[in-house]
Amino acid sequence: MNFFNTIAVGFKEVWAHKFRSMLTMLGIILGVASLVAMSALVKGMENGMKETMVAMGGADKVLIEAQAVPAYQEHRADESTGRTLFDVEALRLNAPMLKLVSPEMEIRGPILTRGEKMVNPSECVGVWPEVLEMNLHTLRHGRFFTAMDEESASSVCVIGTGIRDDLFGSPEKVGYEIVPIGELIEVNGQPFTIVGMLEHYEGEQEKKERELAKKVADETKSGPTRMKGWGRRGGWAFWRKNYTLFMPLNTAWLRFRASTGTNNVPDPRLSDIDVKVADFESLESSIQQARNVLMMTHKGLEDFNFRTQENQLDSINLQIKNARLSGGIIAGISLLVGGIGIMNIMLASINERIREIGLCKALGATGLAIFTQILVESVVIAVLGAALGLVASNGLVELLVLVAPSQNAPVITPEAMGIAVAFSIGVGILAGFLPAIKAAKLNPIQALRYE
Amino acid sequence: MALVEVRNISKIYHLGGEEIRALDDVSLDIGSGEFISIIGPSGSGKSTLMHILGCLDTPTKGTITLDGTMIQDASQRQLAGIRNKKIGFVFQFFNLLPKLNVLQNVELPMIYGGQSSRERKERAMEALKMVELENRSKHRPSQLSGGQQQRVAIARSLVNDPRIILADEPTGNLDSHTGENILKLFRNLSEEGRTIILVTHDPEIAAVTPRKIEIRDGKVATKLDAKLAGLDRSISNGMGGH
Fold first, then answer.
1. Segments making up each domain of chain A, as ranges
2. Closest by Cα among B199, B150, B158, B223 to B44
3. Is A364–B81 a contact, with Cβ atoms under 8 angstroms apart?
4. Which residues of B touch A448 (CB under 8 A)?
5. B71-109 residue pLDDT tens
6. Does the distance separating the beta carbons of A445 and B95 come in below 8 Å?
7. pLDDT at A248 over 80
8. Which residues of A fall within a CB distance of 8 Å from B76?
9. Prediction ipTM score
């Protein structure tokens, strides 16, 4: 008896008991669907987290934070100068393992106004052009700051699209994209000329939603516009990037730090020094090199600290692993239950076919042929169930998105589908094994006499 | 050499510590082309003998040679092969698979024999022609009468061209007229030179065969019971045309 024949007979047997087979398959269908849907959700979560991670500057970004001087240096606390451009220059010259050093001087409590419109930016900082590469920004319109701007502390700024949306109008509302290059806005009452605008940043999910909204006709709304739902849609990281205002570092220093400071020198302390290491593999030694340089410039005073994104990456990976494990266990259990269902039905099936099996043996079927036949039937049920389960998983994912929308769109991966199918085939073989052995061992004489 | 040589076979069952001798030192020869009946009351051991002759079972003691092959020591797998190639079974309850049509039922032994599907179809149609049912090949067994079903079963037993056809009460589930037709069919097959063994308790059937073996209490009876063997004139007269 050749193999294709066996499979064909297996399908026939399943087809002959459509309803019963369908019920049996249900366990596998649900198991496969939940396995695929679960891994799609986790994959969506993973994508969202990684996206956020990249939006925040990637894994190789290291922050040099201010830190209270340690207790053993407490008596020298008043010598602490904070992080200044002096540190930045020192790092650039003496720490070759860093490929990028980007200083930031933040203006606190910024308010941007244009006419009667106003907006609070997420970040209003004086920077060097290095910031673009550091925070993975892309300049879409106009230009960034020149050495001339820096030198003369010109009142120029580069804004994110969020600020444009609030002060000039968003493309969604106006109907076309406004590029406010050359326009004047006020930063805490001081006029600034916009010379450049950054790209609009958004996650995959937001992009999809925006494109969808374009297709759907505008419903006419009455009354004041309201925020829909709780909180901002879309990732926090993307919102933060879109509401950024950059100005030359010297401009921030001279125009916004003049009121604080000593000896007629505006406060030179930076709010942030971000560095990027040249080689991620040697992160530890790169940080050590930077630490050595800063220990020199800070006269041995440890009033700074390094914060890497590695910790965050670890915690993302851990979260994903946990989600995958718990979801996988649940889906695995439901597949196993499906397998028990198959075994049950196969045992019932061979019991009602005892005479048939006895006859086949009398006609010359070997134990192996009977064994294969029963096993193939079981696997056919499992495979059909898996195929239907894959179809069902699409529906399940849609349903999950509908019931519990999240910013992380679930992504069905071929790997998950492959694993689910392989697992259900395994379950089918396992479930068919015992009934198949039982059938193969039947004594033909007794089986033929069986009523 | 005889087609089947049975030498001193015994079959012993153990039932709760008690020894039951279903067959006790049975020896017999069956030649090629013989048409014989094995008769005996129920419980006599004739079914056990049939199972051993049909390679469904092996004897506890003794040897049995079928077409030159010793089968008392054969493995289950070898026995399956011998059943497939050398023996055709006809049962009292026909034992056709209701899910398959007539042609597929007849093809069944060849599926286990591993023949190609074209060869299977050709030979199954040939076998159906022998029992004059070639125009019913697409019917289901449930659409046929009892006699037709039994003829399908006979076609199935013939399809692998076996050395022996073993029929276990082949007319037991049929009315007497249909039963006669089936017996006629066996007689025709016998005249074509096939070896046919009928197992029955019915004297009317035993009367058809030239040779009769009676099993009594697990042994071959030396003197036939005239009534059981169908030697009683009054019964055999009923079997017209013989």
1. 3-53+315-449, 98-277
2. B199
3. yes
4. 91, 95
5. 888 888 888 888 888 898 898 888 888 888 888 888 888
6. no
7. yes
8. 366-367
9. 0.84
